[in-house]
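hi! just following up on the protien thing from before. the input was this:
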Amino acid sequence: MAEHLSQSELDYPFKLLEYINGFRVSKVIFSACELGVFDLLLKSQTPLHAENVAQELGTSVDGIERLLDALVGVNILEVELIDGTACYSSTDVANLYLAKGSAKSLYDMIIYYSQTVYPLWNNMVDAVKDGENQNEKTFGISSEEIFQAIYRSEEEMLKFMGLMNSTWVLDGRDVSTAFNLSCFKSIVDLGGCSGALARELSRAYPSSLVTVLDLPKVVQLARQHFDEQNDTIMFQEGDFFNGDIPPADLYILARILHDWKEDKCLKLLKMIHARCQPGGGVLLVEALLFENHRGPVMAQLFSLNMLVQTEGKENPPSRYSNMLSSAGFQNIQVCRTGKSYDAILALK
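and the predicted 3d structure came back as:
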């Protein structure tokens, strides 16, 4: 690392200190979302004093002022002095991505990170030592059945579904259009959760029929909480690991394989291959590591998250290509989107 740093960075480690304090920045944003800061500022027609914000949100004036100042410091809020008093307002980024009511809101993702992922990461040392997820130590739930831990209550299931919804509202368009999928007239999103990615696929390919297959309880909650007016997608209840794979031209596995050990992934891919007609295929959507172990850092961090929460990991393209080939797929193509998630298309 040192040979890539300037002399000034060696004299005083600004970047290293920024990384060390990264958890504090995350918690500033998490806390502001949980308190409703961004929604309040979005609704306000004028900049607000800390006293106004504290009164509306039921916080201390001193505490909220410090939080607001930190948000200004990381360029998420704006501040101006009016008659000597600090008045705070939102930036466009906060309004678009942090306010709960925005069409591109990451609020649900942030709540999941704050209340579920953050506690798991407190046990990262044990995860690295043991090579096992930390669901039991963190939440008192068996580490063996990972989705029993993730879906340990209806509240947690909804949080996870909100996370998936935020993810695909943000990244769904890029992975849906990484390849031209218009030739596939029937598409099944296996484990499609809230249906957010399926909706992006349906918008990109309006002549294709897009179906989400997921566990019965997930489908029921998706219909209840994430259904959209004039929805063009269909939901179907089932468990693809137990063979409930409906016929389709293309199967989507988005953030599915990274949850599991390779033998389970290979078993699933072989079942999908058996259901495919010649010319059909599978689209994997994952955060792809570089083959040389040098990044991307987002995928490397995601892989650590798989360590503390699941039994899987993030992989480079070669690992997925080998699994797909072993399952019988051919014509494997890889597309890096340059964002959080990438795509691999393979055909039968």
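The chain has a mean pLDDT of 95.
The longest strand covers residues 77-82.
cheers
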